[in-house]
Structure formats: C-alpha cells, structure tokens
Design goal:
Four copies of one chain form a homotetramer. The first copy, chain A, contains 16 helices and 18 strands. By secondary structure, chain A is an alpha/beta fold. In chain A, the strands form five sheets. In chain A, strands 7-8-9-10-12-13-14-15 form an eight-stranded parallel β-barrel, surrounded by five helices. In chain A, strands 1-2 form a two-stranded antiparallel sheet. In chain A, strands 3-18 form a two-stranded antiparallel ribbon. The two termini of chain A are 26 Å apart.
C-alpha cells in the first residue's frame, strides 16, 4: 500500500510487532505436541533462538548455558572478551558508571585493541563445552580476525553491522566481497542487519545460511533518532520472508530469516515468527538474566561509536535465571519470563504444530494502546542496529 | 480490509471498543420505554449481563444478588469455592499479599485440588436461592466434574478457557469432543473464548446456546504480551455476529454472542451491543462491588497458571454496591456505576427500543484520544482470556 | 469511507478537531480587513460566538458583558439563576466542595425547583441592558417555561439536551412536537445537540434558525464513557454542513450550524469554522473568565443528573477577563486568550476575508501528536452534551 | 489521498517527520565518500544548513562560527541586535525571567524600535569575518530596512514571516510586491514560510533562490493551537518539492526547498532531505549551543507578538559547542550532537553519495511510538512559524 506523503514523495506503510496480533484459528493443540525445533544448516536447536553478540548478554559462560538450554549464543569477537585478558573489572566499571558519564567512558574502554589470540582462546573455551559455537565480526574486520576464530573451532560465523549489504562502496579501501568471502570460508555464515526486500535478497545471494533482519526495530532504538533509518520489525520480517520465497524459487536454497531486535516478551517472539521469521535473536532479555555478564546493564555495538554513538547503556535489571527467562517457570505475568513457553502457548492456542506452520498463522493489524507501563518498558530497550 | 504488513504477510485491520463510537440517529426515545430484556434459551434476564467466572467477582452470595438484580452470575467451579471448604482465609491472604509476591503465592494457593463434593454444594446453595444457576468448567476437566455440578442443580454450563475451539488436537490425551458432549448433556451450554469468524462458527455448530467472545480484548490484558494473541473486541464481536448470521442461515438456530472482557463503563457495554453482541460478561466491574469476595482485588483464571501466568492481581477498589454498579443510582460521573442505566441512556439517546434494534445502531470508527486518566484506568484491567 | 469493523458491522471513520489542520493558501490578507461578523436571523454579532447555557459560564452579568463584546450569551433557564433567588451562596458552596463530594452534593443542589417568576426576572434584567437575550430550556420543560421567558423579553430561544431529535418517542408522555412548537412560537429558535447528517437535517426541517452540533465532542467528555455515544467534532460539523446544503436546496432557507463543545483555543475555533460551522458555542473558555460566576470551576448540564451523572465539575482556573479571553490582548501563548484574535489571525494567514469564505479553507487530516501538556489540558474539559 | 472528514469537507492526509523512516537499500557506502556540499546561488556550503534568524540562536559571533563550520547563519535584522546598542543585558534579563512573566516582559523588550544604523553595523561586522552574510526582514519592513542591510554588505536576504505568500491583500497599506522587489534587489533572496504546493509554487515564481518550508511543523509549536494552521513537515516538504519540479519545468530554474523547523536530531535532518529538502534551517539545536546568545533559552519571532503571542521561551539547555552539535564528536547518543555526522551516517548506511541522490531515498510511513521521553523532548520545541 503506497501512501502519498506529499506531491513528490510516497512510501509504503510499515508496521511494528506492537501493531500486530495473532488471531486464534478454529483449532487448538496440546502444548506438549508443539515442536519448537529449529534446524539451521547441519545444526539442530531445541528452540529457535540466538543470543545477540552483545557484551552485556553473551560471555563464554552464558554461551555455554544458552547452548545447554537449546539455543545458539553468539560471542562478540570484537568485544570486551577479545580486548581484555580479564574483562571482569571493565564490566564492573561499566555497571558503576553514572548515567551522564556512561557513553563517554565506554567510548574510551572500547578503544583497547582486539587481540586475535584472545579470539582463539574464547572460541576454544566454548567449543570445549560441547556447544555449537558462534561468534560475530564486523564486515570491516572479518577478514583480519576470521582465521583466529577458525583456529578456536568456530562453528557459525556471524557478520554483523547496523546495516550490512552485499554491495559496499568505498573509494578509500577495498571493501569486503561478501560473495567471494562466504563461498571460500568453510563455515556457515549468518549476515545482517538488513531491513528491506532488496537488501535481504542480495544478502541471500551471497551464500549466507541466514540473514539478520532488523534495523532500528525498537521504539527506543536511537538509530531512528540519530540516523532517521529504521523499518518497523513486522514489515521488515515479512519483506525478508518475501525475499526468502523469491530466492528459494531462483536457487532452491532456503535461507533463514532471523528477526533481530525489538522483542521482549514471548508474545513478541510469537509475532515475529507468525509474520515470517525462522528464529529470533535476543539481546536485552538475555542481558536481564542473573548470569549475564552485564550485571543488570545492557548496551549495544553502536553504543560506543567514537563520534556518533547510537543506543544507550540501560539498566535492564535481573529478571531471573537464563533457564527461567527462556524456558520458565515464570512467577511473574508480564511475559518476560518463560519466553519459549509463551511461544509454545501461542502455537497451542492457535493450533499450529511447528514453526513452519506457525509462520502461516493469521494475524491482524491491531495497534496496541500504549499504556504508561508499556512506555516505560520500551524506554529500557537498547538499539543495537 | 486486508492490509499488507510486508511482502509475504497481510492481515485485516482490527478495532477495539475504544476505537468505536455510537452515532445518534434522527430519533430519541423515552428511557422508560427501553426494553433491556435478554432471553437465553428458556431463561429471561432483565439485563443482558453475565458475571465472569472469576473468584474475585462471583461467590455463591454475589451470584444470588446478581440473579436478583436481573443478571446471570457464573461460579468458577474450579476455583477457590470448590477447592476450599472455607475460602475466606484464602481471600484474606490474597488481598494482603504485597504486589511482588502475589503471582507466586497465588500459584501455590491454586494447587489445592478441586473437591467434587464442594461443587455440588456450591451449586445447590445457589439453586436454593431461586436464581438461575451457572458454573464454569475448563474443557480439560468438564467431563470429570460436570456430574457433580448437575447433582447440585446447575441450570447453565459454561465451558471456558483462554481459547476454546471445536477441534482440540492432542496425541497424549483423548480431547473433549464438544459436539458429542453438548449433544448429550441435558443442559444449555455456553462455550468460549473465541475471537474469530471461523472459531465462532465452529463453536456454534457444537450445539452451544451461546459463545463467549474475547481473547485478550483489554489493553492491559497480558495475553497479548505473553502469547502475542488477541483480537480487539469490536472486531471480535462483529466477526462472531457474522458467524451467527451464517449459522442461523444454515441451521435456523440463533446462538448468542456474549462479549467477554474489556468493558468497564456503560458506554463500553453499549458499544459491545451496538457492534453485535447479545449480552456482555463482566469481570472487573463486579469485582469492584462492595459485596465482591475479592475485597477490592481482582484476578483472572490465567493469573495462577503454574508455569506461564498471564493476567495480574490488580486492585480495583470498591466502587459501590452491586445494585449501584449495575442499576444505579450513580453519584460519580465516570460511567463505572449504573452500567445498565448507561446502556438504557445510550439506547434512548439513539432511539432504539430493544437490544435487537440496538445491534443495528450506526457506529463510527473514532479512536479515543488517550488521556492520562484513561491510561491509568486501563492499567487496572485484568486479562482473563 | 466505510470501514469494516468486523464481518457484520461497518462504520465511517470520524475525525476530531485535533485531527485537522488548516492549510495556508497562496494568498495572505491584512488582519484589519478580516470580517468576523455573524448574522443570525435579524441579529448581527461582531464575533461568531455563543456562550453556553452553563451555570458556571453565564450569569445575567456575564451575559451583558459578552453582549457588549459582540457575542451572544445563553442563560440556562433551568439552572441556578432560576432556582434560587440569590444563587451566590450556592456558587460559593460548589466552588468549595472537595472533589470526591462534588457530584453528589450538586445532585442535591439542583433538586431545588425552577421558579418561573425568576425566569421572567432574569431575562428582563438582561433585556434592560440592551443586549440580545438568549435562554435555554430542555425539550421536556420548554412548553412549561417558555411563556415566563417571553414575558421577560427573550429574543432567542435555545432548546437543548444531550441529544435532541425532531422525533422523540414516548408511550408515557406526549413528547414535544418541535415542528409545531417552533412554527407557533414567535421567536427564533436554536436547537440541539445533534451529531449526524440525518439528525441535523430533521432538526433543520423543524424551522429552527440554528442547530447546535456536538455530542460528546471533547476527549474528556464523559458522555462517550458513560453512554458510548459521541461523534468527533470535525466530522459532526462537516456532516451538519452537508445537511445545511441539502436543506438549503430543498427549502431555500439557510440554517446556521453552531459547533458546540470541545473548543479551547483560537485554533480550535478556526478549525470548527474551516470545516463548516457558522459560529461556535463556548463553555469552558467562558467559565475560565475572571467575571465568570463559577469562581474558576466549570460544570455542565449533565453533571447533576440524579441517577446517571455525566461530566464533571472541573477546575478551569481564571485565565483573564472576558475581554482578554475573547478579544485580547493575550500575554500567554497557549492560544487560550484572544480567541477571536486567533480566528482573525488564522483567516489572515490563509487569505480568507470573511466567515463564509473561510468555511471553504483547505484543511488536512493531520493528527496532532499528543504531548503531555495537551493531555493535561484535555482532562480539564467538561462534557456537556 | 483525499479523506472525507464529513459530508461537506474533505482533506488530504498529512504526515510529519516523526511518521517517516528511511529504508536501507541494497547498497552501503563509505561515510568518507559522502558529499554533503550544498550549492546555493553563487555560494557553496560544506553542510546543507542555515541557522534560523532567531535571537536566541544567531548573534554576529555565532554567525561567524557557523560560517566557519560550513553553514549559513541568518541574523534577525529586526531583533535584539538591531534594537539595542548592547543587547547583552537584555539577553541576561530574558534568561532570568520566571516562566509566568516571560511572555509579557518580552513583549515589552521588543517594543524598542529597530535602528537602521545598527543593521548596517551588525552586517558589516559579520562581513569582515569573511563569511557569507545573511539577514532576515519581515515582508512588512523589508523595504524600510533593506538598504541599511545592503550598506553593511549583506550577501543573502531572507524575507520571513509565519506565512508569506506572493499575494498579500490589504486595503489599508500598499503591500510588498514580492515579484517586483526580488527582481530589482541585487541579491539572492530566500522567502518563507510556506506550507503548500500552491504557496510554494507562487513564491518560486517571485524569483527567490530558495523558499522556507514549514508552518507550525513541530508538535509543540503553538501556531497550531493559536491559529489552527499547520502542515506536518514531511508533507509540507514533499509538496514543496513537487512545486520545485513544476517550476523547473516551466522556467528552467531550480529553486531550493529549505525545511524550516521541527528538526532536532540528525535523523530528523536526514528525513527532511530524504523527502525532498535541499537544506534545513535549524533553530533550537543552535540555541542549545554553548556559544548561543540565548544562554540556554530559546524563543521565536512570534513569541513577543503584542496581542497574540505564539511560541514560548523554552529552556533548551546547553548541549555542547556549535562544532560538537553540528560536526561532532558526540558523547551522547540521543542524536542531538553531531547532526551532520548523523546525516552522513544515514546516507552511508543507505548507500547515497550526495544530497540529490539522497532526496530519492526510499522512505516508509512508520509512525514512531511516542515514548515518554520523546514527549518531554518535543515540549521543548519552539514554534517559530
């Protein structure tokens, strides 16, 4: 639906997950019969979930626990764990910074250079625990650091930036050729973020096994304020799902659409899948776990940009253990615990047996009334992309 | 109106009661001439109203008073009154729990098993008062407990869950066959909740005399957050009314559409009927009565789910007697007292003589501005389904 | 634009004044050249403005001042001034009531019967001041009291209720026959409220010289909450303007459309006229004058309904003299002073020379962002109809 | 898209910058390669930016600094600097006024007459610094003061009022003939504000090199409240861009569309250009600079209107130096520092090499959720036009 903004400009109407509601069908299903299995390349996960490569959420230790709980955690290979031999004091300092000084001090803390040897050791540490290992690198540095990651035994590589495209233009440096790089690297690669049909389609054509969808999806994500860029997440996912169909037709390959950002409750996750995602990537819900390295604080990759910081260090509190947050049981009713119990419940209540079926669930456009509480919750989100 | 959410997903636009306003016609009518009578099966009620099977709202005592005032109260036959010989201390404890401990402690209190003998006694107690008796059971347990309810003299059975469909699928247990069950039971059955045309139509085909419409209708209902499921109530009612027409054509039977949840004022009730409901089911307005067992607190069936609680124990205060709330007089102007005086006033001001006429009232889509007060009020709602 | 609410119900989209903005044209005009004159029947007013028949706003004294300033004030002939020989102590008590007791006590104060002799005296007092006199009566009582008003020398009769239609149906009492009554009474009659094309058209056919348009127009008007009835004001006015065209074609008579309620600023007044009103009726802006009898408080006719009160006694403060509020100068920038200077400025900035031209101004649908301040202001409105 | 407001009135749907989001494309670009150059008439600016002719933002000193940073500052030639030999004490008093007295006292302070000799001296002072000099005059006074400005060496004349049109009608005074005036004056002229296709087109035909677009664009701008006039900025810009195309076709001349008002972050600026602006005019971001003459306060030209003030003196604080605000680096993440780094980042992330390309960026209609913080920020805007 093209809308005229003015005489010389039109645009499509876009919708966020808050604008969407899943509609019951004429069938319900036993929650015990619901299959949440997610199959990515050669790997099978019990829940369709990745943990964001954010220093506040994923450490080698939480990566292991998330792996045991059935998900896939991504370590930020250009983060604190690969810049500092022992990042503990850095985490402690970040958690203790007063709000008005946080951004400036974090800009300094992240000036510490990345140490390739630490990359190898962190990956190896996760690998030894028997989990599927995943780590993220930016397009600018992936060629420099990827061998260190391979040396540690990395299983899945994530190439991630605020916006990553298959065609990066520069007159100064030779940009990464994603097509060639992915074809040559002997590892499944997930790449993103993106937030348009064309962007998603071209990333799929690079040979990636999955793409991350989400640019400024959250209401409090400051990318929208700082850059003016951002596609509400329901539309971004549904557009990427359209690219997935197109690319499947042209290539026979099925590339996973992973919704990244803006989901806080089980209902948000259910809606992301109901509009077309194969899996979700979670940041702030993981950072709010008792085991999370962030000590109740959360920040994103763009928070410490030296000249144009986007995103905030926000206090997310500690809602429960990783197990409680992902698999329950919940003793609060706000939807922020037992996230995948919520997904299971949504699929049961609408009669869908597995994720592929649930992607076809009926949804309605039903903008949520914004209660005061909701506004407060939203303001605790972190913009990552 | 199908809206494109993104390339690979579309959905209809849905509307809540807050988005709707009733339009005056060219005729007005004497309020004294308005007929609010509601005829359900063999029973006639002076007001088109059921009280929700929520422990905070309906006790045997309030059921009797509601019956005397012209409505139909439904006792939760799997609630406190059938789990505890004397639930008074339990109610007192719930009312005294600090907010942060309420959900967890209520999960424990509701682990006490249901006693079939208490079911029989509670129903009999209501029956002796000469009112029409109604009680609710969940689909999972209705076959186990229905005989105890019949033994007490139950007049109307309500089969209720968050989402109930005519087709429940399970590989573990033999699910309830609603078609067979309703045909064989010698009692009018009301079943729900549902919130779609197809869901409503199939429930009507089971032989039920009425269906409950409403899944996550309220803005503060946490089902939408926890599960992502929910249809704004005006659309849910109007869709169910469409199913009622279709089923009437195919069968000659008129099945009642009972709007369940999300109504707080006389205006909300009027709007529910103006978009197609035959009657309304009220929870929080009843829980806010001085006689209500909840002592100024309100909670729903899903509040105490052991692993995935949805809905809250909220403080609703005590607004007045049941009579004042339902029939007035009101000494406050917020529309929360004299609910059916409000309905009568709405019908008079728009010139409609009875409920069937009022279902044809002209309405407009006119989203209410959200004032701060409104937001606060909404946050006191309880999600039941 | 008919919108499907659900399978069995549709409705038009309606818009409030807050949803509308006036668009500059390619011409501007000298403010001194703008003609704000309003001609109603044989009377000419310098500004297109009536003051609402609300006890908080219009006393005989403020009626005289409003007349001098160029407007037409309507005295409530069933209000405090015709129930009490000296209403001063009653006003003082109302202004001193604590919030939680106000509605109940006002219900009592308004039980004092109307004294026809006082009607005659109040009207005569205004008449002696040389202003055009106007008074309001409800449809139920107009036949009982109109002779007393005529005896005092009433110039313009206003017949007013929440919703008034040309066809009131009652089996108990013989309702007022508006067609006959207006034809026989020797006085111009204004009648309302109404809020639909059909309702407006039929009121025009009664022979009234003007109709009041507005049922629950304000966001905080409790008629929408209590009764569920209400048409956003921009749509209500534009629909009534449609009826005015139709009636002009069928009869050759031009009936004035007077927007009643929901306007607080000069911008609101400008928008009401730009969508089709001939004049506006103001309540709360007048009640906020230093001279207003309400002593900084404001309440409407429905506030003291004995069984179903709608509307509130709200504190509106004292913003300035009547002259400052209507004609300026303003020393605040919130648009609540110099209301008709604002109208003049709007007409100048968009190049329209007089009210009939300004009714054809281009407008856009441009929902205002709701700032916190706006919400607070809105919550001070009073629902009168 | 014409929307029916009611039977007798329709209007187009209009959109603000907050309703718009820029969509990533399938290409990204090196930020170092982005060209932000803005060419206006014979002048080239490193950033597409003008500073508003508001006394709180532009003094001769800040004009020089803004010029050095690559933008074009406009001095208000009817403001404090041309009314007072030394305006410093006046600025100090304004900054010290309590909120409730500010409007009234500023009305008095601005009664001091404009001194043409001061106009000449202020312009000359800026000219000596080697920057491009620009000053604003109102249509009413431009003929009286323009020679004084020329005498000082003015490079660019801005003729500005709330709404300026090519056709001003007055029976009292001979209005400015813009066509003749601009043709005869030997200087590039920018004129505004305007906010419609027709208004923009006719201003372009006067011979102006640029037009200012924006009437009441900000949410807290009180022009919308006081006058009811205002076009949301995205629509206003896109309509003016439509007029630019039309006028280019009919004349071969390209007239610049300068978005004026309502932009606070780099994202806002990016969106203004993405919907069609050639450059932006900034007020409150400049007033919030440490060097700004307003001492942390901001007010607009209409704030001190003697009879109908519109706009407020608001506290904007001091966010950083002019350099930090315009070019960075930022140490906060709210988008209010490094505004043109934000624009550069937006163009890089969406793959556009220069401003003309970026005007063709894909955008979506994606109304931002209003968080509480956003509302607070918005309430600090000043309505200038």
């Amino acid at each position: 639906m093209e809308i005229e903004i003015g005489m010389a400009k039109s645009g499509r109407r876009a919708w966020g997950l808050d604008d969407i509601a899943i509609v019951p069908s004429r069938r319900t299903r036993d929650p015990e019969d619901i299959d949440l299995t997610w199959q990515l390349d050669a790997f099978t996960f019990e829940i369709p979930m990745m943990a964001s490569a954010m220093d506040s959420a994923v450490s080698p230790a939480t990566a292991k626990e998330i792996g045991r709980l059935g998900g896939l955690a991504v370590l930020n290979l250009e983060g604190l764990w690969t810049r500092y031999e022992d990042p503990t004091p850095v985490y402690e300092e970040i958690a203790s910074l007063p709000k008005e000084k946080a951004t400036r001090r974090m800009q300094e803390l992240y000036l510490q250079p990345v140490d390739p040897e630490l990359i190898t050791r962190r990956v190896a540490e996760m690998k030894e625990a028997g989990i599927v290992t995943a780590g993220s690198l930016t397009p600018q540095h992936v060629e420099r650091y990827v061998d260190a990651a391979k040396a540690g035994g990395l299983d899945v590589l994530v190439i991630q930036g605020t916006v990553v495209t298959a065609e990066h233009v520069s007159t100064r440096v030779e940009p990464l050729d994603l097509y060639r790089f992915i074809r040559e690297i002997e590892m499944p690669v997930i790449v993103g973020g993106c937030a348009s049909y064309a962007g998603a389609l071209h990333l799929m054509r690079t040979g990636a096994v999955g793409i991350l969808v989400g640019v400024g999806p959250g209401a409090a994500c400051t990318t929208r304020g700082v850059l003016g860029i951002g596609v509400p997440q329901a539309t971004a996912i549904a557009d990427a799902a359209g690219a997935r169909i197109r690319y499947l037709e042209e290539s026979g390959r099925y590339v996973h659409v992973i919704a990244d950002g803006g989901m806080r409750t089980g209902g948000d996750i259910a809606k992301a899948i109901a509009v077309g995602a194969d899996a979700v990537m979670l940041g702030s819900p993981i950072a709010a776990a008792e085991e999370a390295p962030g000590r109740g604080f959360h920040w994103g990759m763009a928070t410490f940009h030296p000249e144009l910081p986007r995103g905030s260090r926000v206090e997310v509190g500690r809602l429960g253990t990783l197990r409680e947050i992902l698999l329950g049981p919940a003793h609060e009713n706000d939807g922020r615990r037992n996230l995948f119990g919520g997904l299971r419940g949504a699929m049961a209540a609408t009669g869908h047996a597995n994720l592929k079926e649930f992607q076809k669930a009926e949804v309605m456009v039903a903008p949520a009334l914004q209660t005061e509480g909701k506004q407060l919750q939203r303001s605790q989100q972190v913009g990552m992309g």
